[in-house]
Amino acid sequence: MTLQQLKYVTTVAETGTITEAANKLYISQPSLTNAIHELEKEMNITIFHRTNKGISLSKEGESFLGYARQVLEQAAILEDKYKGNDGGKKQFCVSTQHYSFAVNAFVDLIKKYGQEEYDFSLRETQTYEIIEDVARMRSEIGILFLNDFNETVINKILKSNNLEFHQLFVAKPHVFISRKHPLAEKKIITNEELESYPYLSFEQGEHNSFYFSEEIFSAFERKKNIRVRDRATLFNLLIGLNGYTVCSGVIDKKLNGKDIIAVPLADESDMRIGYITHRKGMMSRLGTTYLLALKKYLNSPTTQPQTKAAKQRQIRIT
User: Fold this and answer.
1) pLDDT at 52 over 50
2) Which residues share a beta bridge with 201?
3) Contact indicator for 21, 11 with CB cutoff of 8 Å
4) Cα distance between residue 311 and residue 305, in whole Å
5) pLDDT single digits (tens) 297-313
6) Longest distance between any two alpha carbons in the chain, whole Å
C-alpha cells in the first residue's frame, strides 16, 4: 500500500468516476483502475462497487476511505514540518446540528488553512446522519447535544458505532423568538405561554424520533408544529409567524441577525452540547484547530445568551 494509492482512492471517491479522477490525477484510466484493483487485492476488501451505471463506495470502502484520509493528513503534516511546504491540498469535514458557533469556527478554520487548494465540508444535517458520518469517517467531528431524555438511546448508538462523546458546555434551554414577538420582553418564558404560537423544529427524515430531535423533547404538548430543513427558513418563519424554537441560547448576532433573541425557557432539563469522534481515529491538526475555534466562540460575549438572567450563568467549557 502506498500514499499514491490512497490518493487515487480518495480522488475517485470525490469525483465519483474513474474518468474524471484519471483526468484530475493526470494518469490513464487503465493505470488508475489497476492501481485500485491492486490495493483492494492487497487489503482483501472491495472499496468500490462497479456497475454499468458507474462506481460507488462499498461499506468497507467508506470505512477504508476514512482511514485513508487520516493517513494522508498525517503525511501532509510531515511534509509541512520537514519539507517546508504547505503539505498539499487540505481536506476536512465536520457534521453538526444547526449551531451558529459551529459555522463561526468553520470560518476561522478556512481563514487559517484555506490556501491555494482545499476541500472543506460543513454538513448541517440530521442527528442520525451526524452519527453515521463520523462512524464511517466521512466527518472527523460531529456536533450534537445530550440531555436526560435522549442520552441513553444516543449513547447506546454511539457505543455500537465505536464513537465517543466529548462535552463542550452545559446550557439551559432557551427559546429563539423574534425581537417583535409578544413574549420578547419576558425574562423567562413558560411552555404554557408558548402554547398558542407555532413551534419550529428541524426535520429528521426517516429517523424522525424524539430521541434524534435537535430540540429538547418536552412533556408539554405542542399543538402547532412546523418542521423545516434549514436555518434560514426556520428564522424567516420565526419572524413571519411569531413562531419559536428551543435551543441552547448561544446566539450570534452577526450570523443569526439582530431580529432574533434568546429567552430562557422554564422547567426543562439542561442541554449538554459536545462533539463526537471515532475511537479509532486520530485528531488531525485541522480538527484540533476547529475545536479551539469552537471554544473561542463559546467563550465570546457576542455568542452568549442575550438576557440578563442567562448572562449570570457561566457556560462551562471543558
Assistant:
1) yes
2) 227
3) yes
4) 6
5) 887 544 444 433 334 33
6) 68
CA distance from start to end of the chain: 39
What is the reported pLDDT for 226?
Answer: 92
d(CA 179, CA 262): 9
Burial of 104 (0-12, 13-18, 19+ CB in 10 A): buried
Mean pLDDT across the chain, nearest whole number?
83
Domains and CATH numbers, the chain: 1-85 (1.10.10.10), 169-273+304-311 (3.40.190.10)
Q: Between the CA of residue 171 and those of 21, 265, 294, 298, what are the distances in Å?
A: 45, 11, 15, 11
pLDDT in tens, 189-206: 999 999 999 999 998 877
CA dist., res. 294 & res. 22, Å (int): 37
Residue 45, phi then psi, degrees to nearest 5 = -140, 165
Q: Checking DSSP bridges between strand 118-124 and strand 90-96, what pairing results, if any? A: parallel
Report the alpha-carbon distance of residue 296 to residue 290 in Å, rounded. 10
78 Cβ neighbours under 8 A, 6+ residues apart: none
The Cβ of residue 157 has, within 10 Å, a number of other Cβ atoms equal to 16
**Rounded CA separation 274/145 (Å):** 6
Q: Closest by alpha carbon to 293, among 53, 42, 62, 120?
A: 120
Closest by CA position to 229, among listed 143, 129, 313, 311? 129
CA 213, 214, 220, 223 torsion-angle sign: negative
CB 316 within 8 A of CB 169: yes
For 57, list phi and psi in degrees, rounded to 5: -70, 135
Q: Are 282 and 70 in contact (CB under 8 A)?
A: yes
